[in-house]
Amino acid sequence: MKKILRKIFNYMQEVSPIFSLRVLYFMATKKVKLKLSDPETFDEKIQWLKFYWQDPLVVKCGDKYTVREYIEDKGLKEILPKIYGSYDSPDEMDYHKYPSKYVIKTSNACKTIIIVNDANYIDKKKIKTQLETWQKLDYSKTSLEPHYKYMFPKIIVEEFLEDGTGLFPTDYKFFCFNGIPKFVEVMTNRDENHKIEVLCQTTLVKNKVK
Question: What is the pLDDT of residues 56-65, one digit of tens each?
Fold first, then answer.
């Protein structure tokens, strides 16, 4: 049933993306009316931006790989996590080059992350299968955010960031309006709240690498 509903929804996105957006908006907010012609609330303005603000920077900065170039161009290279490799295919990955802890992610979606806590115990076959699945994912349809459609699904292996307690560090998201930060979202306990990360961590880290 879920597969059938997903096919119907994907078809509706092709026929009427705005209608599909209204459906998702209602499911997320329980608000029947979404004012796109004259948005007032923060939520409404975010939905308007998805379809009517097509600045190339949306694609470049939404892509986890190309945003690194943008940040470097701004003179902020030192704030970027270390990168151990970037690949077009999981077959190109060289696990012997990576440290004991690292993160694997794809550049073209959200929550496509694999956490490796101990490089001695990983299942490379399962990692490969998962990455190939993620690289085929069209996240623009999953999220109704059209800019994801124009991202190349690159694989990135990055530094594992932690706060010294064994937990993921607190995440701060700054929301800026006309270049001015207006409020901050603070996210804690991300290792507990991000189910995909935890799932990958527990199901992919099993067998000792050979």
Answer: 999 999 999 9
